[in-house]
From TrEMBL:
Taxon lineage: Bacteria, Pseudomonadati, Pseudomonadota, Alphaproteobacteria, Hyphomicrobiales
Domain Glycosyl transferase family: 29-193
Protein name: Glycosyltransferase
Record has Transferase as a keyword: yes
Domain of life: Bacteria
Cross-referenced Pfam families: Glyco_trans_1_4, Glyco_trans_4_3
Record keywords: Transferase
């Protein structure tokens, strides 16, 4: 019996495909530790820790994040110790180091193989911070705080047996001394589920139904914020909508806590930037979809005529690869995370701040959709060849984590080997001639 412990404040998060693949196996026992936002999965025993209350003002401003991470670490220690007392001592621990949750794991489970999920290493320059001149520099104090955000991650990575990053670029954000310790394997995209569908339709909350027959420009991010180019997209809409009077704009996502800067008080980033284009666009053709379920989100991708995905140099969203798997025509920002995936044959890249070029490329793709059908196919082929969950990523993950091969596969492999041995014996007894 192989015992696996997952630790992530928002479990299952990136570990969902692996947990689903392992669920139901009688040779695997899984447990997870997460915060109150963690979600239970079949086959995984979940322990939720409470985020401790307490004022951080007494700590030095530079140390407040680490203080909060240490408080989380203490709660994880209690949860993990409880698992240990119940007899669950993991052979493998897979954890995200970004919130301090990994700090107690090595001393508590000294014999376990511990893997750190290396999603992003913060830098005070050259990545998401300082990329957009529209927003003021944080000064030296701000740069020090950014640097110190990595403290728990570095301690965890030093403790870990290995690290795992989903893309080459995300691994490249880490200090060179650690990069050789980090393997690159993407979480994977279920291309069997997420594929083109010419018959797809999406019913909006207003009752309006959109299909592939409509000109639909899609934009999808967890939070509408500058880090994901929301301001650039909105600023491109007046020209796009004027040139394409039938275009429907579908903006997916909402006002969740942003990854980057918080909006000015009294605003979400959506309300703050939308003021710029009020009166310049037909608002009845702009549709905000905040709470699409998984099936509806897939339909939104399948009906898309042009899918805009922008990002600062930051973590690559799952939604980009899912859009490509659905056969979307991608118009993306010419930033490092996208250059790893989009090469010009499978999508279009434009400079992040070039609003005119963004508008022009969207207009062009809407005006001549057949010209770009090959690019749509190439986008899906890229995902199938490099990021397919069941055929590429999951087998690599199982091998990397050293998770035992399922018993039925072992039996099948042994049967094949026995038959091969018998064939060789018969072949040899026939004097080297095929019987």
């Amino acid at each position: 019996m192989q015992k696996i412990l997952f630790v992530h404040n928002n479990f299952p998060a990136q570990f969902l495909p692996l947990c689903k693949a392992l669920s139901g196996r009688d040779d695997i026992q899984m447990a997870a530790i997460g915060s109150p936002t963690a979600r239970a999965l079949p086959g995984v025993s979940l322990k939720k820790y409470m985020i401790p209350d307490g004022e951080l003002a007494a700590a030095h401003p530079f140390a407040r994040r680490f203080e909060a991470e240490c408080r989380r670490a203490e709660q994880v220690l209690y949860s993990a110790s409880n698992l240990k007392q119940q007899g669950f001592v993991p052979d493998l621990v897979v954890a995200h180091p970004g919130w301090g949750e990994m700090l107690p794991l090595r001393p508590l489970f000294p014999e376990a193989r511990i893997i750190a999920y290396c999603e992003f290493y913060y830098r005070a320059a050259g990545q998401d911070v300082g990329f957009d001149a529209e927003f003021p520099d944080m000064g030296v104090d701000g740069h020090v705080r950014i640097h110190l955000k990595n403290a728990a991650t570095l301690l965890a990575l030093d403790d870990a047996d290995a690290g795992l990053s989903p893309t080459l670029w995300q691994r490249s954000t880490y200090p060179g001394v650690f990069q050789s310790k980090i393997e690159v394997i993407h979480d994977g995209v279920d291309t069997d589920l997420i594929q083109p569908d010419e018959t797809a339709a999406l019913t909006l909350p207003s009752g309006k139904v959109l299909t592939r027959a409509d000109e639909v420009v899609t934009f999808a991010t967890r939070s509408h914020e500058p880090l994901r180019g929301f301001h650039c997209f909105l600023r491109a809409l007046p020209a796009i909508m004027a040139a394409r009077p039938n275009a429907q704009i579908l903006i997916i996502g909402g006002t969740a806590i942003p990854y980057g800067l918080s909006p000015p008080e009294g605003h979400s980033w959506r309300t703050y930037f939308f003021r710029e284009i009020e009166g310049q666009v037909d608002a009845s053709r702009i549709h905000f979809a905040e709470e699409l379920d998984r099936a509806q989100f897939l339909h939104a991708l399948q009906i898309s005529s042009a899918h805009v995905y922008f990002t600062y140099p930051f973590v690559l969203s799952w939604s980009l690869l899912e859009a490509m798997s659905a056969g979307c025509l991608i118009i993306g920002s010419d930033t490092a995370p996208l250059r790893e995936v989009i090469d010009g044959s499978n999508g279009i890249l434009v400079p992040f701040f070039d609003i005119e070029q963004l508008s022009a490329r969207v207009i062009e793709t809407l005006a001549s959709p057949r010209r770009f059908s090959g690019m749509r196919r190439a986008a899906r082929e890229t995902v199938m060849e490099r990021y397919d969950l069941n055929r590429i990523c999951l087998p690599r993950l199982l091998d990397f984590y050293k998770i035992a091969t399922p018993s039925n596969i072992v039996r099948a492999k042994r049967t094949t080997e026995v038959l091969a041995d018998r064939f060789r014996d018969v072949f040899a007894s026939a004097g080297g001639k095929r019987p």
